[in-house]
Write a structure and sequence with these properties.
The chain is mainly α and 110 residues long. The chain is 92% helix and 0% strand. The longest helix is centred in the middle third of the chain and has 101 residues, at 9-109.
């Protein structure tokens, strides 16, 4: 087409159709670029989700292991509490025996 102004109605229609075609082509190209960007964002989001899901699985496994270890240690903690209670009772018994021994010594000293 020439660079001069169209003179006939047919040339004017051709110019409008050509401009509309360029506009539609541009719009399709922009939509295509947006789609490609969305596809890349989706891929990146999917990869990030997979990473987070893997970390979550690892944390769950570690949490279960810690829970199991805590259960095993609880038996030891219970034994320590029992030993502490026995030690406190023995200490009370020693105090009572010391008082009794002091009374016996006082009685024998008279």
């Amino acid at each position: 087409m020439s660079t001069t102004e169209p003179t006939t109605r047919s040339e004017q229609v051709d110019k409008v159709v050509e401009a509309a075609g360029k506009l539609i082509t541009h719009e399709v190209a922009v939509s295509c670029q947006e789609y490609q960007l969305l596809a890349k964002l989706n891929d990146a989001s999917s990869a990030k989700y997979n990473t987070v899901a893997q970390h979550t699985r690892e944390l769950l496994i570690q949490s279960q292991e810690l829970s199991h270890q805590q259960s095993q240690l609880q038996a030891n903690f219970d034994q320590i509490d029992e030993i502490l209670n026995v030690a406190l009772k023995l200490e009370e018994t020693v105090v009572v025996l010391e008082k009794y021994m002091d009374e016996v010594e006082d009685h024998l000293a008279k």
